[in-house]
Queue: 2 jobs
Job 1
Amino acid sequence: MMELGTNGYAAPAAGRKGGAAYDVPEGVDIRGRYDAEFAKILTRDALQFVADLQREFRNHIKYAMECRKEAKMRYNNGGLPGFDPATRYVREGEWDCAPVPPAVADRMVEITGPTERKMVINALNSGAKVFMADFEDALSPSWENLIRGHVNLKDAVDGTISFHDKARNRVYKLNDQTAKLFVRPRGWHLPEAHIFIDGEPATGCLVDFGLYFYHNFAAFRRTQGAGSGPFFYLPKMEHSREAKIWNSVFERAEKMAGIENGSIRATVLIETLPAVFQMDEILYELRDHSVGLNCGRWDYIFSYVKTFQAHPDRLLPDRVLVGMNQHFMRSYSDLLIRTCHRRGVHAMGGMAAQIPIRDDPVANEAALELVRKDKQREVRAGHDGTWAAHPGLIPAIMEVFTNNMRNSPHQIHSMKREDAANVTEEDLIQKPVGVRTMEGLRLNTRVGIQYLAAWLTGTGSVPLYHLMEDAATAEISRVQNWQWLKYGVELDGDGLGLKVNLDLFGRVVEEEMARIEREVGQERFKKGMYKEARKIFTRQCTAPMLDDFLTLDAYNRIVIHHPKGLSKL
């Protein structure tokens, strides 16, 4: 294991000195490996732009993170999240967001995935209306993944991206017609420990946004945005003050680029419980730059547990039972639709995580039918579009939305959902119902360890048991195990009557590790980081205090610092 420096990040690795180095502005220190291709992204001017953003907004970001800690203390002392009386005038006021740009009026199906080169090409060619290229939950943010991702997106926006799959002897290129590109930077809480600005790690999302925007805004507006854009997805927000920072970042970027205010557009993921009470306020802060909200439902479930970690009366049932049929989940979706349509923007539905089951047509059709029913529920509720994890789902989902929406690109004006004006604070936090089982505990453990093992080796989007798992589903596994252990819950759904304790959990971990080894094979198990993942996952599940994010702890394991002047090895 690499040695950690005093800042909590990996100390510089020993290596050969001499050779090429990045040309950086004053106060910027790049500690990631030098690569001539990376240097085309990490130019002096692009890094200056990132540094300017960091210097202008770092204190605002630090304050927002302190406010998160204060809210957490309030909830841990018995408080409940709710609507803010001080911003009632925003919720009740008559105002609209800026009109949706024609380039993104139709968002019926959006595909998401990491910024890996072949994935970018396939997603843009998938037949989806939008591809959300992800620097967040679907990406393990190693230096290689991060900067290579920027190389790939620049080539995609330029229209020059290609990929030669030597194993299949096939060359992948863009079709004439492609999905519109949205980019999701990391959340406010994540650092970028390979780039230091004025002696401290850069803010991850400002690196992601700044590098992408600087290199691509002009070409994007010409080739994809029809004079508008670029387009973004914004994750993990908990309060409108965080949206206000993003709005200021956008204004700063537009000024730098010399483009009109409101050019940049973003959809905010409502994927934390506190944010559901701030939807109007978030849209209001971003009203010149908004193109809607999205139901980030997996992270939302994770956030429910995290918000109520000190509330033993709000325990979750097995994660497979926490779907949109739960009252608190349905209320969240309904209020999001009403809020977005009232303000003139898209209300996007949640992820269909299923992936095709190629060797079992019967099981594959059953899985597709579940997807169709979920999407039928979404479109009839009033959603304007939805997410898919795999290109194989797109035709079925597109058919559901097209049949229900007929010739309209969205339902912003036709499905106002005024009935959802009656959704209350209690509706949004109502206790979930359902049983807890040994299989639920086992599945959480198996998925959590396997996901983390993949993440540590550079993969952030992982197919497991016919579902595409990302950091959000691993987070649910972790916090649910932690919650059940902390409160010694009884597994009341399988007739066993066992109580979850450290002994039972230890046994489950041992047995599930053995099962993982059987499933993946001995050779892959030995080469993989399953034992390291087990240590991290077990420690997080049994910690006295719940860690805010699984990936914050694991991030230290993938940071590799190189001495200045270390050239490509």
Job 2
Amino acid sequence: MLVLFETPAGFALFKVLDEGKLSKVEDLWKDFASSDKARKVVELKAFNKFENTSDALSAATLLIDSKPSKGLRKFLQKHCDGETLAVADSKLGNAIKEKLKIDCRHDSAVMELMRGLRSQLTELMSGLAEHDLGPMSLGLSHSLSRYKLKFSPEKVDTMIIQAIGLLDDLDKELNTYAMRVREWYGWHFPELTKIVADNIHYAKAVKMMGNRVNAVNLDFSEILPEEVEAELKEAAVISMGTEVNDLDLLNIRELCDQVLALSEYRAQLYDYLKSRMNTIAPNLTALVGELVGARLIAHGGSLMNLAKQPGSTIQILGAEKALFRALKTKHATPKYGLIYHASLIGQAAPKHKGKISRSLAAKTALAIRYDALADGDDNSMGLESRIKLETRLRVLEGKELGRSAGSAKGKPKIEAYEKDRKGAGALITPAKTYNPASDLVLGKSTEETPKKSEVASKKRKHEEAEPTKEATEADGEQEKEKSKKKKKKSKDSEESPAADADGGEKKKKKKNKESEEAPLADADGEKKKKKKKSDAQDVPMETDESSKKEKKKKKKHADE
């Protein structure tokens, strides 16, 4: 049996001297504990060396896909006639068996044998030293990794980082130069600053005009609209600016040339940046635009570094200072960084910017990974993600989307609310019914009034009986003593809580009224007759002055 072993230098075929040891897989490692023991198990039969690095790379890439290279097929056909071949990859063994008709073996014993060969490789192969094998392995691994990532000079994102940095610098310099032109020429023609707002148009007008006196005879139609041109010519005639000499105007015109040259170079650089972004990160460009995408790549360091970042990091990339300040002061963290300048976030309302920025950051993270690691160069994924985000934005703003938002089949059915039902439906509590016994009936309330009137009449009869006893007494001295006692009692009653007395009197009055208003029985009529008789007897008997005074006091007390 032969063993196929791959090395960075080439393919090696080892002859198994004692196949019986392969049956004892657990003890096979002991036979490779030293080089002498290993030579007793296997020996090198043939070696196929790679001619160069590209040959090694092509053979290695084919082996990854479980395909034998052309050189390997020739090598096996030459040395494997009628032999069983042990391989480390079962798929590779199947491919060799189909194409070369060579029996292949792959099991745990073969893997243990491969492990032993790897440990004693330099001892079993005389022409391969250990210090040579290390650099060869490193070079081949680098080449293989570069091939896996589809490395191409067209995908170098360093150019984007430099271009966006230069574009930002040009914007600053261009703004500084333009403001200097306005300030310098403003001494000669100050009205022109308000008439022409654009910096480039201002520089072109100054370069063409020179002295403001020449403005009347010049044609500014290629630079300015007709209304602005007419206003400029009128202002040039009545301008309050100072006079300048030709040397000053020459320097101002040279500065205008610098402004125009910088603006032209900036437009050229922007076109270059746009083309590079569409080549290197087409999906990222479709989502957030060229400038925002380039700034994200520059801030991340490279497209590959940016692909390693999660969506939450991409969302706040560029707002690190605000993030750490918020964490330190325990305030709300920022919702967006560089991604804020994307057109999708600009279209959203202020209350929806946070949600859209989070969704856009998640889609941007996917687009960056697709651009960095995928094989395709189209921007279909980015365009699809942008359409989804625009749809989500319209949903948040409450706009109608038609059928894309969902069909009528999925709409929930509206059912009547029943507070006594729950779930599928048994009643939790029995339904409440009408109870006629709880109604208030007027007849029952009137039946209680005669009882109250009887009690009130008894009390009144007892009170009216007292003055008759006093009238029967003949002696005036005894009447005076009783009157004094009654005065003391009245004083004591006045000193008691007024609330109790008033309450008692009110109750008595209510009882009297109820007795008068209620339909009384025959017994009530007899009581009224007795009351009248007692009143008639009291009038002739009260002859004394003391009895009159007491009666007046009682009436006053009752009125109170």
